[in-house]
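Sample A.
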Amino acid sequence: MTPNVATPSPALQPATQNTLVDALVEQGWYVGREAIDLELCAALNQELLHRAAYNGLDEAGIGRGQQHLLRKDIRGDAIHWLDRESAAQRRYLDAMSELQQALNHALFLGLFEYEAHFAHYPPGAFYQRHLDSFRGRANRVISTVGYLTPNWPSDGGGEMVVYHPDDPSQEVARVIPEAGTFACFLSETIPHEVLPTRHPRTSIAGWFRRNASLGGVLDPAR
């Protein structure tokens, strides 16, 4: 007799895809609480905190390539790009691959790949209001944020504020960085910021991208 093997819970709740697609079409952004499996969040959070404790993160900057700059007055997180080196990373990235297929099927976006990094915000860190991609110039199409910190305190700060695409001064959502919450939004049109945190804040920031290669040279992922 074959022993019973427990089937792991889906990394993303099954209802997330349809709700997310509808929200992107209607308003350009989506936020779902308890969308990511909490056991997966715990494994990813443990991995990120281990890296933070042993200097395994890099200071985040702004811009790409030769225009990359460290600007603590703009953003204060530290990062590590996901590379499938752990089972938890592979499970999360596989879920994003499934979501990529669903987005391409429903919205014909031509998404080519997904890139993501751990993000650790120490107390006092923030990220000023910005867009993840410039209109018509870049290939980041849809941004994602998966939150990992359990039991987020009510006075912890660190919320992601989402602004209206046509009025960057109008706040439309404030996302508490609680483990299991998953946010998704249009990279070129949705301004957002991370408010100063008073508690160590952990997440995974990611982007679904189109292929912006020119002359047969693949646009670099970072």
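Sample B, a different protein:
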Amino acid sequence: MKKSLLILGLAVTLFSCNKNEGGATEFKTAYVNTQKLMDDSEALKDLNSRSNVKGEELKRELNDEYQKLKLDYAKAQDEAPRRGAQWVQAKAQEFQEREQKLSMMQDGMMRQLQEEFAPQRDSIVEEMRSYIKDYGKKNGYDYIYGTGDAANVLYAKDSYEITEEILKAVNAKFKGENPDAVKTEDKATEEKAETTEKEEAAK
């Protein structure tokens, strides 16, 4: 945390110095609400949906095995009075081993989900980071900050936020659409809205 504050403080200092030197240099900045980006990303929603479906399939398989164990245990309890102590002891050992196997099976299923979907999630997040970096270069930004769980913005004007632009673009890319076309449409809509406002004000 201290390191983040020091870095942010240094950036603010540099910004202030550059701005004060004749007023010629100003940074173009923006920020992205990373939590919203993650929550509303179509790619991550699709991944989570597939992960949940796979998880439910594995859960049903595990529940079936648990039900078999419960039925066998109830049957053994009914037979115990007629079977004797040695049989009961052997059955108790059997059920203990089966429970251990089911526990290992559950752990294995969790690892399977993690190994299958974690790399895909990492890949999607990395693509987002790469897109934001390219977006910053194309649009002449000096800094694009991120907010969320790992926030590194203490304050920002609402006008600096570009979360919706980034979100629309990465979702368009996921759907196979052209992200730049989405941005152009948004700009045209904004310009139309500004023109309408000016016309209304003129009246």
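Observation for Sample B: The chain has a mean pLDDT of 80.
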